[in-house]
Amino acid sequence: MTYAEDMSTQTLVSVAEYLSTSFRPDREYLDGVVLERAMGERDHSRLQSLLCAFLIQQEREWGIDAVVEQRVQVKQHRFRIPDISVLAHGAKPEPIYTEPPFLCIEILSKDDAMSSMLERIHDYLEFGVAYVWVIDPRTRRAWTYTRNEIREVTDGTLRTQNPDIAVPFAAIFEAQ
């Protein structure tokens, strides 16, 4: 079901109601509609765990903080939940991020629709996220999105600048 279909069939809820309700697993909130996220299977979950563990091991060296499935308020009435969020050290810790993470990472699930993923990427970049990485665990392909470019990663390493992050995702895949 697409976001547009959800809008026509769902009961709208307030931000306050969304924030005061516990969902298992957590759900996103887009303009009054509470949306289920595509559920990851083992390849998704394992890659998410390994990638976050790798980032956590590098936190001091790279000056970052990495977390999984943290709510990010990208607009007044829109809350996204990236698979992994990376903050530059010094960013204020918040129960729900209201300041843009430096990097948001999305790992594709087999049920993710391209239109929904592009909308999610747009939300992050419009909010001020510097980098968005999208990784497909089934094809072992990855893309980097910034405000200025979309680039498929062809050398096996996901990168950012300032702070400089370099993740050899081929090695992460091998650990799966």
Structure overview:
The protein is an alpha+beta fold. It has one domain: tt1808, chain A (Alpha-Beta Complex), CATH 3.90.1570. The protein is built from six helices and twelve strands. It has a six-stranded mixed sheet with strand order 3-6-7-8-9-10, with helices on both faces. Strands 2-1-5-4 form a four-stranded antiparallel sheet, covered by helices on one side. Strand 4 and strand 5 (78-80) form a beta hairpin.
Short account of what is shown:
The chain has 176 residues and is an alpha+beta fold.
Brief descriptors of the model:
176 residues, alpha+beta, tt1808, chain A, six-stranded mixed beta sheet, four-stranded antiparallel beta sheet, 6 helices, 30% helix
Task: Specify the number of helices.
Answer: 6
Instruction: Bin the strand percentage.
Output: 25-35%
What assembly state would you assign to the polypeptide chains in this entry?
single chain
The percent range for helix content is 25-40%
The whole-angstrom Rg is 16 Å
- Could you name the ranges where pLDDT drops below 50 across 5 or more consecutive residues? 1-8
Largest sheet descriptor? 6 strands, mixed
Give the class from helix and strand content and strand pairing: alpha+beta
Please report the first level of CATH classification, the CATH class. Alpha Beta
Distance between the termini: 30 Å
Average pLDDT value? 90
Name given to the CATH homologous superfamily: tt1808, chain A
Q: At CATH's second level, what is the architecture?
A: Alpha-Beta Complex
What is the third-level CATH name, the topology?
tt1808, chain A
Number of DSSP E strands: 12
Task: Provide the number of structural domains.
Answer: 1
What would you call the shape?
A: globular
- Major sheet strand order: 3-6-7-8-9-10
Which sequence of SSEs, written as H and E, runs from N to C?
HHEEHHEEEEEHEEEEEH
